[in-house]
Design goal:
- Helices cover about 40% and strands about 25% of the residues.
- It has five helices and five strands, in the order H-E-H-H-E-E-H-H-E-E.
- Strands 1-2-3-5-4 form a five-stranded antiparallel beta sheet.
- Helix 3 packs antiparallel against helix 5.
- The two termini are about 30 Å apart.
Length: about 150
């Protein structure tokens, strides 16, 4: 016979929770996105390191959408965060210019920024701080970055 605590724990493991947001592609919304994702994932009881890792990855993904996807112009950044068991999935999508060569774009130090203000390390940071990063994009169709991380190993 299961105890009430065991039943509650089992129900929580099976439950999938999702947060969806749409933000205007403005630089100042990057901070809001990282804080909102952090607050949502806090129910997973992450360590401070896990929290900071995810916040950094979210910042990089949102900033890429604002700076490169929409080239600083108007557009919407779509964020979907899912908690399923101990796995956190963060998907950040823009409807911007897209990426013609994803492999090249994911190389450390590669940037399309000609001002010299960007380091080209966004995807590298995402890969360093998350367990898995997948990028799907096509010119004129926008970009979807999906990042996954196990919390509380």
């Amino acid at each position: 016979m299961e105890t009430i605590m065991e039943m509650a724990a089992e129900e929580k493991r099976e439950k999938k929770e999702t947060l969806r947001m749409e933000l205007e592609s403005r630089s100042e919304n990057e901070e809001f996105a990282r804080v909102a994702v952090a607050m949502f994932m806090s129910r997973m009881d992450p360590t401070m390191e896990e929290m900071e890792d995810v916040k950094t990855a979210v910042s990089e993904a949102v900033t890429n959408g604002v700076i490169h996807g929409y080239a600083g112009g108007e557009g919407i950044i779509y964020i979907e965060v899912t908690i399923e068991g101990r796995e956190l999935t963060v998907a950040v999508r823009d409807g911007g210019v897209g990426i013609s060569d994803i492999k090249k774009a994911m190389e450390p130090m590669y940037t399309t920024d000609r001002t010299g203000e960007r380091s080209g390390m966004g995807f590298s940071f995402m890969e360093a701080f998350m367990d898995r990063v997948e990028v799907v994009s096509a010119p004129g169709k926008g970009t979807l970055v999906t990042m996954k991380k196990q919390i509380g190993r």
